[in-house]
Amino acid sequence: MRSRIIKIASACLIIVLVVVGRYCANGLRRLASASASRFESAGAWSPMSKAAGGAYNTTDRYLSSLQIPNPSEATLKVMADVPPEDAMVFITSSADEGSELVYRTVAYLGWPRPIGEARCGGAGEAPELFFHPRAERPVKWLFFYRIKPPPELMQTSRTIGPYLVLAPSPELKEWKSYCSQ
Amino acid sequence: MILAAGCGIAMLLLPRHRLTTTVEILCLAFLFGAAFVSLASFVFGFFGAGRPLRLTLTLCCLAFFAFGWRMRPKLFEDRGSRIEDRGSRIALRAMMRSSILDPRSSLPAAIALLTIGLVVWLSRLRTLGWDGLFNWEIKARIAFLNGGAIPLEFFSDQTRPWTLQGYPLLLPLTEAWFYGWMGVADQEMIKLLFPLFYAAALGLIAVGLARAGCAVWQMVFAFLLIAATPLALVGDGSASSGYADFPLAVFYLAAVVYLIEYWIEDAERSLRLFGCLAAIMCWVKQEGAVLWLCLIALAAIKIIQRRQARRLPALILPGLALLIGWRGFVGFVKPPTGDNFLPITSQTLWNNLDRATVIIPSAINEMLNWKHWGVLWPMVAVSIALLAVDRRLAALAGAVIAPIALYCGIYFFSAWPGFDIHMSSSFPRLLIHITPVAVMVVVIAAGGVRARFDQPPARA
Question: How far apart are CA A12 and CA A53, in angstroms?
Answer without folding.
Answer: 35
